[in-house]
Specification:
The complex is a heterotrimer of chains A (511), B (108) and C (43). Chain A is α/β, with parallel strands linked by helices. Helix content of chain A is 39%, strand content 15%. Chain A has a single domain (3-476), classed as Peroxisomal Thiolase, Chain A, domain 1 (3-Layer(aba) Sandwich), CATH 3.40.47. Classes of the chains: A alpha/beta (511), B mainly alpha (108), C alpha+beta (43). Chains in contact: A-B, A-C, B-C.
Chain lengths: 511, 108, 43
C-alpha cells in the first residue's frame, strides 16, 4: 500500500541581523578582508521585514500564491512588491527574527541561549498571538537576563551575539570549553535548525489536520550535524525537534545527503509506511544560517537588495493510504548510483528518463517536474543562472537526444512541464520538495495526475568523494485501495441464522 | 571561485610552471565562466581568495569551446558533455572566454 | 598547435554546468594530464 502526503509545512524566517553575523560569505569576508567595500555597503542592502513579506517568491513558498504567479510577473521580481504581503499563508508564515529568537530559546534544552529581559517582555506577547505556537513552547521561554551579562559573555567569553536591528539582545554560549563541535557558533547553527524544524513540523501537522500524538517517526534531512568531539554527527535533530513540537509518541533519526537528503528521507518515510512499520511519518528540515547572503557580493555589486535574508524550513506528514491524498509511488524511482558517473546526461538519465522508460512512460507523461527549485531572482544575478529552468532544459534535451521529442518543442516542454523557481537558496530546502504542497493541492483539485520530485546533491563538497548524487520519485493522484473480498458482520449473522434454521428444520424432519 | 580551488591553482602553477598549465572550466553561464577565467588569469575579482592580486595569466577554456572540443575524442565528448550543448548558451560563454583570454592570458 | 596535448590540466567544473569528472574524461582523451579536478556549487 502506497503512502500518501497528508500535509506540508513551509515556514520562512526573516533574519536580517543573522545575514550580517552568521552567513559564511560575510564571516569569511570579515576574516580575509575586514575593511572591504562589501562589508561597508552591505548594511544598506538589507530588506525590511515588510519588504521580505511583499516578495512574490516568499509568498509562493508559504502558499499565498501558486508558482504560476511568477510566470505572470515580469522578471526580476525583487523590485516588484507583491500585492499580497501577509505574514501567514496556507503552508506557513514569514516569522520575524525577534519572535524566532524566542522560539530558539524555547528549543534550547541546555541553557545556552539567553535573551535580554526587556526584549523578552516586548516580544513574548507577540509570539503568544501566533496560533501555531503551543502553550508548552511559550511556557519554556525564560524571563531574560540583564544586558550587562550579555555584553560580558559576548566580549569576554566568545559567545555568539544575537542582534535585533544591530542592537545586542542576546547570546548563545558554547556547550563545552574545548570541544569545537559544541562551540557557540555550532550551537547557534544547530538551535536555528532545530527551532525552524519545530515550526515546520507544527505547520505540516496543521495542514494535515493531525494531532502531534499521531506521528510515530520523524526523519530530519537538514544539512547540519549535531554531536560532540567523540561523535561529531551523532544526531539526532529529528527527535530533538519532535520533543519541542510535542510529538510525544514519536522517535526518529537523521538522514544526510546534501541537497538530495529530502528526497532520500521521503523515500525512506514512504518505504516505512509501505512496509507497515509505521502508519505516520514526518519528514522535516530546518534552515541554515551559513547560507544567508551566500551570493551577497554579487547582489551588492549589482545594487540589488540582499535576497538571501530568510531561513527556510519544510516538513511533510506521510500516512498510510487514506484513499484521498496523493500517493508516493516508489515503483517509478530514479536513482543515481556509484556507477552512474557525473556527466549531465547520465545524471538526468538515471534520475528522470530511465525510471520513466522502465515504467513505460514518456517524459511528457509527467505533468510537472520539480527538480531544484532555487529562486532565479537570487541565482541569476550571481551568475549561476536559472537552476530549475536549466534542469528542465536538461530533461528536455535528453528526451530530444533519445528521440522522444523534437528539438523545436524543447522550449514549450520547459514552460509546460517545469515549475518556476521560488525557494530560498537554503541548500536542502529548495531541492525538489518545495513543490510538494502545491503539487498535493493541484492533484487533489484534479488538475494534475503525476508530478516528479527530483533531489540532487553535491556530495563532492564534503571532500570524501567526487561523486554526485540524486534520487527521484513520483507523486500521483490517489488510485484508491481495492476493497478486499471480506465478509461483513451482517453477512456472518445471516449465514449463522440460515444454518441454524437449516439445522432446526432438519431436527424437525428427523422426528 | 572557491578558496581551496584558488589555492590549488596557485600551488600547481608554481609546481609545474604557469606555461605548462591549461585550465578547463564547466560553468553553466557566461558570466560565471568569465569570473572563473578572470580568477586564473588576472586574479580573484572578488578579493577573497589566494589569487587576489595574483595575475597567473593561465591558458583557460570552457569545455564546450570549439578550439578544445576539436581535440577531444568525439565519442567521449558526446557521452560526457554533448547534451549540455542544448542547455548552455554557447555563444555567450565563448564570447566571455575569448574576451578574458585576449585581455589577460599570457600562455595561450 | 595543440592546446591540450602534453599539458597539465586543472579542471574547475560546475554542478549546474559541466561537472569536473566529465570534463576530466574529455581532457584526458586529448592527451593532457589532469592534475586537479573539482566541481563548484553556487547554490
Amino acid at each position: 500500500m502506497n503512502s500518501v502526503i497528508r500535509g506540508t509545512g513551509y515556514p520562512l524566517v526573516h533574519v536580517p541581523d543573522m545575514v550580517l553575523l552568521n552567513g559564511t560569505t560575510q564571516t569569511t569576508e570579515r576574516i580575509v578582508n575586514p575593511e572591504s567595500e562589501y562589508l561597508k555597503k552591505l548594511g544598506d542592502h538589507i530588506r525590511t521585514y515588510e519588504q521580505a513579506c511583499a516578495y512574490y517568491p516568499n509568498q509562493v513558498y508559504i502558499g499565498n500564491y501558486t508558482p504560476e504567479i511568477l510566470e505572470e510577473v515580469e522578471f526580476p521580481w525583487y523590485d516588484k512588491p507583491s500585492p499580497v504581503s501577509d505574514r501567514f499563508g496556507k503552508y506557513g508564515e514569514i516569522m520575524p527574527q525577534e519572535e524566532f529568537y524566542l522560539l530558539m530559546q524555547a528549543s534550547d534544552e541546555f541553557e545556552l541561549l539567553f535573551l535580554e529581559k526587556a526584549f523578552v517582555e516586548k516580544y513574548k506577547p507577540e509570539l503568544a498571538k501566533n496560533g501555531i505556537i503551543t502553550e508548552a513552547i511559550l511556557d519554556r521561554i525564560h524571563e531574560g537576563v540583564e544586558l550587562e551579562q550579555i555584553k560580558k559573555q559576548v566580549n569576554e567569553h566568545k559567545a555568539e551575539p544575537l542582534r535585533s536591528n544591530g542592537e545586542l539582545v542576546g547570546y548563545v554560549k558554547n556547550a563545552h570549553a574545548i570541544d569545537e563541535n559544541l562551540s557557540a557558533h555550532v550551537m547557534l547553527e544547530n538551535l536555528v535548525s532545530k527551532a525552524s524544524s519545530v515550526l515546520s513540523l507544527l505547520y505540516a501537522l496543521k495542514d494535515a489536520g493531525m494531532n502531534p500524538d499521531d506521528v510515530e517517526y520523524v526523519i530530519d534531512c537538514s544539512e547540519e550535524a549535531c554531536g560532540d568531539m567523540n561523535q561529531r554527527g551523532g544526531g539526532n535533530f529529528a527527535k530533538a525537534a519532535a520533543e519541542t513540537a510535542g510529538l510525544n509518541n514519536a522517535t526518529g533519526s537523521d538522514v544526510r545527503g546534501f541537497c538530495a537528503a529530502p528526497s532520500h528521507a521521503l523515500t525512506m518515510a514512504a518505504s516505512l509506511i509501505k512496509a507497515g512499520t509505521f502508519n505516520c511519518v514526518a519528514v522535516t528540515a530546518g534552515g541554515s544560517t551559513a547560507k544567508l547572503g551566500m551570493n551577497g557580493k554579487e547582489h551588492v555589486n549589482k545594487d540589488l537588495p540582499i535576497l538571501e535574508d530568510v531561513l527556510g524550513g519544510f516538513a511533510t506528514i506521510l500516512t498510510a493510504n487514506d484513499n484521498i491524498n496523493p500517493e508516493i509511488n516508489l515503483d517509478i524511482q530514479g536513482i543515481h548510483t556509484v556507477g552512474t558517473g557525473s556527466s549531465p546526461q547520465n545524471v538526468i538519465g538515471s534520475l528522470v528518463v530511465d525510471p520513466l522508460e522502465r515504467a513505460g512512460l514518456k517524459v511528457t507523461d509527467i505533468n510537472k517536474y520539480s527538480p531544484e527549485m532555487q529562486n532565479p531572482d537570487v541565482t541569476k544575478p550571481a551568475g549561476a543562472g536559472d537552476v530549475p529552468q536549466s534542469n528542465m532544459k536538461m530533461i528536455g534535451a535528453l528526451a530530444v537526444k533519445r528521440g522522444d521529442m523534437d528539438r523545436k518543442d524543447l522550449n514549450d516542454f520547459v514552460s509546460k512541464h517545469g515549475v518556476v523557481g521560488f525557494a530560498p537558496t537554503q541548500g536542502h530546502i529548495p531541492s525538489g520538495v518545495p513543490y510538494l504542497g502545491h503539487a498535493r493541492q493541484e492533484i487533489l483539485d484534479g488538475k494534475m495526475e503525476k508530478v516528479m520530485i527530483v533531489g540532487k546533491g553535491s556530495l563532492f563538497l564534503g571532500r570524501l568523494t567526487n561523486l554526485f548524487d540524486g534520487i527521484s520519485f513520483i507523486v500521483q493522484a490517489n488510485e484508491g485501495v481495492e476493497e478486499e473480498a471480506t465478509v461483513s458482520r451482517d453477512e456472518i449473522r445471516g449465514l449463522i441464522a440460515e444454518s441454524l434454521r437449516d439445522f432446526a428444520s432438519s431436527l424437525l424432519e428427523s422426528r | 571561485m572557491d578558496l581551496e580551488n584558488q589555492q590549488r591553482v596557485l600551488d600547481l602553477s608554481n609546481e609545474y610552471g604557469a606555461e605548462n598549465i591549461v585550465v578547463l572550466v564547466g560553468a553553466g553561464e557566461g558570466e560565471a565562466a568569465g569570473l572563473a577565467a578572470e580568477t586564473v588569469t588576472a586574479g580573484d575579482p572578488t578579493y577573497a581568495g589566494p589569487l587576489t592580486g595574483v595575475s597567473l595569466g593561465l591558458c583557460v577554456y570552457h569545455v564546450c569551446e570549439e578550439a578544445v572540443k576539436a581535440e577531444f575524442d568525439p565519442d567521449i565528448y558526446d557521452e560526457q558533455v554533448g547534451m549540455m550543448e542544448m542547455v548552455l548558451d554557447l555563444d555567450e560563454i565563448a564570447e566571455e572566454m575569448e574576451a578574458i583570454r585576449e585581455e589577460y592570458t599570457k600562455y595561450c | 598547435m595543440s592546446i591540450l596535448e602534453g599539458k597539465k590540466a586543472i579542471v574547475i567544473g560546475d554542478r549546474d554546468g559541466v561537472p569536473g569528472p566529465a570534463i576530466s574524461l574529455c581532457v584526458e582523451s586529448a592527451g593532457a594530464e589532469v592534475v586537479y579536478s573539482s566541481t563548484e556549487c553556487f547554490v
